[in-house]
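Reopening this one. Same input as before:
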Amino acid sequence: METRIVVQPETLLPGSAGPATANIWLESGSIGVPAVGWNDFAIVVLGWWSDALLRLIRGVSSREEVRFMDGPYSVLLDSVGSDRWKLTYVDRTSGHRARDIGVADLGLAESITVAGRGLLEACRAQRLWSDDATRLEGAIADLRRELNDVHGS
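Same output, byte for byte:
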């Protein structure tokens, strides 16, 4: 079962009082977290995913939590070996509910770099470049370099 970050760059819109928004969610099999078509501050959230995966791949941490900004939702990533992470969806809306959603591998990091490139292209095309986009561009480049080192290419 493939686990990946999905971003729909065609949904990118300028924020009314903050960063631009776009549809972004985590997909694992038939599960969409927080939901398929979830709209959030995608540039910021994708940067957080990039940073978290980079720390996990480098072994700097064994557990990361990535939040979605629009709502009390997050995903916990726990190392279960080199380059594999157990994912747990946390919903804090009514109590503290958690649901295991599978194990991800480097394909998740690959999907983040692809989604990031698409989102950054949309930012350029729509003239929505921001400091958040600059940070995401750097995070994606760092993650891409790390993946190249892991793959030995």
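So the earlier flakiness isn't reproducible anymore. For the record, The longest helix spans residues 131-151.
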